[in-house]
Design brief:
The protein is of the alpha/beta class. The protein folds into 3 domains: 161 residues, NAD(P)-binding Rossmann-like Domain (Rossmann fold); 109 residues, 6-phosphogluconate dehydrogenase C-terminal like domain (6-phosphogluconate dehydrogenase C-terminal fold, Orthogonal Bundle), CATH 1.10.3660; 68 residues, VC0802-like, CATH 3.30.2130. The protein has 13 helices and 11 strands. The strands form 2 sheets. It has a 7-stranded mixed β-sheet, sandwiched between helices. It has a 4-stranded antiparallel β-sheet with strand order 9-10-8-11, with helices on one face. It is globular, with a radius of gyration of 24 Å. The mean pLDDT is 91.
């Protein structure tokens, strides 16, 4: 693959353009909003000049409801040899593609499982897809060369290909992406009119849960409209669990000891189910989940402090598996939580303390 066109220069489209351009491909950019395409081009994602003839691959990065219409237009213009879309819902767009009479031998649906709470070309990153799953949804009439082109795209972007049925994909993303987005927004909505004193108590827990609540509502309406039934099914199950949890919490306030024990058992049961579910989330590079331990370091609010800390951790020979920064409200310090292998906790803690760092027990 040497040439590509990206149709739609939002976060995903621009990130794909950046990744391909970095690997030497000639990338052409199109967008209904010319300013967005020019912004993506200024970032290095490609050129807004049209291609002289058909490119190797067209990447359609538009909302799910527009995929069929845009694909039909691209094929009418003979824009590329092969086509894929990167919308986060697959079954609906696939049905529309068929209904519009598009050439389905040269088209394959796909979905990179990557994103950010920010949208638009300015949020794009060339490494957005690295190490992330990228779902491909071929059908019986997908040509082998079309599949190979999509696989090459995934490889060029540093992602991991996963082949799934379109409907299976939509049920899966309802569970692991779409419903969590709404749950995050629901939790964050409780903060809208909360007392300022309560807000100032916010710690890493509420920050973690509500991070994706900063996402663009308009974009998510487009996504959820295309997968509403599957998301509603997941949230209905969540609602049932919430109802049982509320009942258990009320029981903890009861006068009868038997009711309180039943309430405690109910809370413990749902939390243990959560432990089990969370433990199934894959670890780094899709490997089985690994238990890490946390080393919490007090970090001053001076330029270069974080880099200096990472440098000293590297000098000890410890690999940081994950990192989180918790800010201290009203104070010029924060806490960096370094996730490391259990066996590294002792040596790392001792080395950092000897180097003058304050490590919390």
């Amino acid at each position: 693959m040497r040439t590509a066109v990206v149709v739609g220069t939002g976060l995903i489209g621009t990130s794909a353009g950046l990744a391909l351009a970095e690997r030497g491909l000639t990338v052409h950019l199109e967008d209904a909003d010319p300013d967005a395409a020019r912004t993506a081009s200024s970032l290095g994602a490609g050129t807004t000049e049209p291609a002289d003839g058909p490119v190797d691959l067209a990447i359609i990065a538009v909302p799910p409801a527009l995929v069929g219409k845009v694909l039909a237009d691209c094929q009418r213009r003979n824009l590329a040899r092969w086509y894929t879309d990167v919308a986060s819902v697959k079954a609906g767009p696939r049905s529309e593609v068929v209904a519009l009479g598009c050439d389905t031998t040269r088209y394959i649906g796909s979905h990179p499982m990557a994103g950010r709470e920010r949208s638009g070309p300015l949020a794009a990153r060339a490494d957005l897809f690295e190490g992330r799953p990228w779902v491909l949804t071929p059908t019986a009439d997908t040509d082998t060369e079309t599949l190979n082109a999509a696989l090459e795209l995934v490889a060029l972007c540093g992602a991991m290909p996963i082949v799934m049925d379109a409907a299976e994909h939509d049920r899966a993303v309802a569970l692991v992406s779409h419903a969590p987005q709404l749950v995050s927004s629901l939790v964050a909505a409780r903060l809208e009119h909360a007392d300022e004193t309560a807000i100032r108590l916010s710690g890493q827990g509420v920050r973690d849960v509500t991070r994706i609540a900063a996402s663009n509502p308009g974009m998510w309406v487009d996504i959820l409209s295309a997968n509403a039934g599957a998301v509603a099914d997941v949230l209905q199950e969540v609602a049932a669990d919430l109802g049982e949890t509320v009942t258990a919490l009320r029981a903890l306030e009861a006068a009868q000891e038997g009711e309180r024990r039943a309430g405690a058992a109910g809370i413990e049961a749902v939390m243990r189910r959560g432990n089990t579910g969370q433990s199934r989330i894959p670890g780094k590079h899709g490997s089985p989940p690994t238990r890490y331990e946390t080393v919490a370091v007090v970090l001053g609010d001076q330029p270069g402090e974080l880099g200096r800390l990472f440098g000293e951790v590297g000098a000890v020979g410890v690999n940081i598996e994950d990192v989180a920064i918790e800010h201290s409200t009203g104070q010029q310090v924060g806490f960096v939580q370094l996730s490391v292998a259990p066996g590294a906790v002792g040596p790392l803690t001792a080395a950092l303390r000897s180097g003058g760092w304050s490590v919390r027990d």
